[in-house]
């Protein structure tokens, strides 16, 4: 089916069914997300307002990694 990733200005990203509006998945963040998430293959990339670039697997919602965009290096767990 068709799905759309919906970022929140406060925290988290939801994936919704485009036809029914039903929530399919939720990807947790600790800060707001204004930019549209990007899906490449089985990964979803999210850039948060606190300058973290986080990527998750789409199917299992597992957080695979995170880097601090402005400072470099890994994010705090």
Which characteristics define this entry?
three-stranded antiparallel beta sheet, 77 residues, mainly beta, four-stranded antiparallel beta sheet, 0% helix
Q: Count the helices. How many?
A: 0
**Main structural class:** mainly beta
Distance between the termini: 33 Å
Strand residue percentage: over 45%
Number of strands: 7
The order of strands across the largest sheet is 4-5-6-7
> SSE string, helix = H, strand = E?
EEEEEEE
User: What is the residue-mean pLDDT, rounded to a whole number?
Assistant: 90
- Rg on CA atoms, Å: 12 Å
For the report, how would you describe the main beta sheet? 4 strands, antiparallel
What is the share of helical residues? under 10%
Describe this structure in words.
By secondary structure, this protein is an all-beta fold. The protein is built from no helices and seven strands. It has strands spanning 3-7, 13-17, 23-27, 38-40, 43-47, 52-57, 63-68. The chain has a four-stranded antiparallel β-sheet with strand order 4-5-6-7, with no helix packed on it. The chain is globular and about 40 Å long. The model has no long low-confidence stretch (mean pLDDT 90).
Summed up:
0% of the residues lie in helices and 45% in strands. It is mainly beta.
Layout of SSEs?
Blueprint: E1 3-7, E2 13-17, E3 23-27, E4 38-40, E5 43-47, E6 52-57, E7 63-68
Antiparallel strand pairs: 1-2, 2-3, 4-5, 5-6, 6-7
């Amino acid at each position: 089916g068709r799905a759309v990733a919906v970022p929140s200005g406060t925290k988290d990203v939801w994936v919704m069914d485009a036809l029914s509006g039903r929530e399919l998945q939720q990807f947790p963040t600790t800060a707001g997300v204004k930019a549209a998430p990007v899906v490449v293959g089985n990964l979803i990339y999210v850039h948060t307002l606190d300058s973290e670039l986080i990527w998750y697997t789409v199917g299992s919602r597992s957080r695979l990694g995170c880097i601090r965009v402005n400072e470099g290096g890994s994010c705090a767990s």
